[in-house]
Amino acid sequence: MTRGRGSSAQARLLRERGEGERVTFIELFFDLVYVFAVTGLSELLLHHLTLRGAAQTLLLLVAVWWAWVYTAWATNWLDPDRPAVRLMLVGVMLASLVMSASLPAAFGDRGLAFAGTYVAIQLGRTGFVVAALRAEPRLRRTFQRILFWFVAAGALWLAGGMVHGVARESLWLAALAVDILAPAIGFVTPGLGRSTSSEWTIEGGHLAERCQLFLIIALGESILVTGATVVSSPLSVGTVTALVVAFAGSVAFWWIYFDRAADVARSVIASADDPGRLGRSAYTYTHVPMVAGIIVAAVGDELTIAHPGGHVTAGVAAVVLAGPVLFLAGHVMFKWVVFRRLAVTRALGILALCALAPVAMVVPPLALATMAMLVLVAVAASDALEVRGSERGAEAQAVQASAEAPEAYVPAPEEASEVPETPET
Fold first, then answer.
1. Could you give the C-alpha distances from 144 to 11, 36, 56, 134, 151, in angstroms and in order?
2. Binning pLDDT at 50, 70 and 90, where does residue 420 land?
3. Taking a C-beta distance cutoff of 8 angstroms, is the pair 122, 70 a contact?
4. Rounded Cα–Cα distance for residues 252 and 373 (Å)
5. Other C-beta atoms lying within 10 Å of the C-beta of residue 235
6. Phi then psi for 287, rounded to 5 degrees?
């Protein structure tokens, strides 16, 4: 990012660009509020296990993600160690806490509380960034465009908070469509034109790490939910087995995302000519289904632990299978955007999970959860075997190339004399 000259207060709020821009402690502290948000979303889905409840939960999840990810983008440019930026983050944290507390009843009597805090987060943070970027006129215009779109969407969010039922759902769906559409069309704004991803001069490694940490938040919440459910349930072989299955599923989620692809993808975006494009497509968009998958799977784990040998209802079967499907589908899209190749093992995993649907209603919850977990473990294991096979292949190629070299390396006499003799046995 090119800095304007001068030592204005606005310029001092910007990060100093360098290799390996780090995630600060205040950013990690900020993320703690969103653990509460993920818990609220899980609670909403658990108590409204219908198609309508699932749609409502998804709508609120995207809104929560949008509030969080735009803050991650903002702190990619602004220095969180500056007092003014820290105060802004603390204010967003407080509003996020109120927003998160409103989630379980957002479609009930707390609709205006949710909408009001969401709009306050988006407008307040973006307005602060516009003021802080006076030394960066080109980037500032981008955030002015973003502010315009948040005002447009905010009117719909607030209007939805004032009505009830289908009217609220319709207005909030329209508001969310505006929020999602805006980055895809470059925040085109009357009088300001359209922004291009090349203008979004982010430090790609930092944004990648921030999104990776949000996945850790979601996985941590899923483990918290399973542990709390075991504490409140009668201890039995079925309960303990269900806990082990849920934990193995969480580990498989982590393995699939973090074992290799996360670091490689971070290197790709960090060295990309247009990191803004990857930041929008690979991280802002495709991480939503992965987070959704973890939350849905956590609800399935909770229901399985509570009733491991009970009858599988349509709702239980849906969350047990849909959680892994959403996660794998999100990772297929993520790897396609970053690496431009189809993640075959994940696609096969989705097909295997879909193949379990016919038997989902005739087996106990624990058996269905175990089969879904084994599919995830198989995907993770195939990744590990693929990496090991590629390493062995590279090693074999190196040995063959060395053997076919026209002149093998022979140490000079003075070098050979430095090699210690092997003691006789």
1. 17, 30, 30, 11, 11
2. very low
3. yes
4. 8
5. 10
6. -80, -15
* Model confidence pLDDT, tens digit, residues 257-295: 998 889 999 999 988 989 999 999 999 999 999 999 999
Query: What is d(CA 218, CA 44) in angstroms, rounded to the nearest whole number?
Result: 15
d(CA 367, CA 387): 30
Tokens representing 124?
Answer: 């307040």
Return mean pLDDT, the chain. 87
Cα 134 to Cα 9, 74, 141, 193: the distances in Å are 9, 14, 10, 19
How far apart (Å, rounded) are the C-alpha atoms in residues 312 and 303? 10
Structure tokens belonging to residue 110: 């707390």
- Per DSSP, the three-state class of 200 is coil
Q: Which residue has the tokens 């989630």?
A: 103
Identify the three-state secondary structure at position 173.
Answer: helix
Distance CA 226, CA 421 (A): 60
d(CA 240, CA 257): 26
Report pTM.
0.87
Tell me how far apart the alpha carbons of residues 329 and 307 are, in angstroms, rounded to a whole number.
28
Q: Is the pLDDT of residue 391 over 60?
A: no
Residue percentage of the chain with pLDDT more than 70: 88
pLDDT of residue 418: 39
Reading the block at residue 88, the tokens are 């802004």
Cα dihedral 233, 239, 244, 250 in deg (nearest 10): -50
CA 263/CA 113 separation, integer angstroms: 39
Amino acid at the residue 242: A
Q: Which residues contact 410 (CB under 8 A, 6 or more apart)?
A: none
- Are the beta carbons of 72 and 132 closer than 8 angstroms? no
Q: Where are the alpha helices (DSSP H) in 232-313?
A: 237-258, 261-270, 275-278, 287-306
Residue 301 CB neighbour total at 10 angstroms: 29
Encode pLDDT of 59-89 as tens digits. 999 999 999 999 999 999 999 999 999 999 9
Q: How far apart are CA 195 and CA 189, in angstroms?
A: 9
**Spatial contact of 176 and 63, defined as CB atoms under 8 Å apart:** yes
pLDDT, position 74: 94
Give the span between the Cα atoms of 232 and 84, in whole angstroms: 44
| Residues 302, 159: Cα–Cα separation, whole Å | 35
Rounded CA separation 76/100 (Å): 24
